[in-house]
Amino acid sequence: ARLTTATALSVEPAGTGSPAHSNSTAANAPRSVPDNTLVVRDGERVILVPLSELDWCEAADNYVRLHTKGRKHLIRETMRNMDERLSATRAGNARFARIHRSMIVNLARVREIKPVGGGEYAVVLADGTSLALSRGCRERVMALLGFAE
Q1: What is the pTM (predicted TM-score) of this model?
Q2: How far is the C-alpha of 62 from the C-alpha of 145, rounded, in Å?
Q3: What is the distance between the alpha carbons of residues 97 and 104, in angstroms, rounded to a whole number?
Q4: Could you tell me if 1 and 43 are in contact, meaning their C-beta atoms sit under 8 angstroms apart?
Q5: What region does 140 belong to: left with phi over 0, alpha with psi -120 to 50, or beta?
Q6: Exposure check for the chain: N or C terminus, fewer CB within 10 A?
Q7: Residue 29 contacts by C-beta under 8 Å, 6 or more apart in sequence?
Q8: Distance between CA atoms of 86 and 9, rounded to whole angstroms?
Q9: Is the pLDDT confidence value at 26 over 80?
Q10: Is the alpha carbon torsion for 79, 85, 87, 89 positive or negative?
Q11: What is the DSSP track for 7-35?
Q12: What is the distance in angstroms between the CA of the first residue and the CA of the last residue of the chain?
């Protein structure tokens, strides 16, 4: 699966190929994708992923793997670009924070932060997924979640 960023791709409205819509300029104009939506290519399909449905992201070389409601999507994007985009966007109750060099999490999905031994911590999401919380990110994440250390 590949991604073109939401700002780089327009999605044709449903029904633009039908003769009933062929005379309407408004119906034939591409629909721009909202800033709070990622556009993911999956073969010939184009999937719109609202940021509010994004649980977490992980680095995969020059790609980012998106985890949404039990599904995974691979997009061609760097973690730095994804982090900047998610940090600048507020989609519903979705706020995002980098919890590790290779992971970004939707703070609305965090159920708990628990110690795992040796001074290390893990972020546990609502679905039970446990992700490593780096020491360098811990203070910021705790502050964003309203926890005092």
Answers
A1: 0.74
A2: 29
A3: 6
A4: yes
A5: alpha
A6: C
A7: none
A8: 18
A9: no
A10: negative
A11: GG-EEPPTTTTSGGGTT-HHHHSPEEPPT
A12: 40
Question: Of all residues in the chain, what percent are helix, strand and coil, respectively (each to 5)?
Answer: 25, 40, 35
The SS3 of residue 129 is coil
Label residue 136 exposed, middle or buried (CB < 10 Å: 0-12, 13-18, 19+).
Answer: exposed
pLDDT digits (tens, 9 = 90+) for 62-75: 899 999 988 999 99
Tokens coding 76: 């061609």
Q: Which two tokens stand for residue 93?
A: 């109750």
DSSP category for residue 76: S
Residue spans of beta strands (DSSP E) within 86-134 = 96-100, 103-106, 110-117, 120-125, 130-133
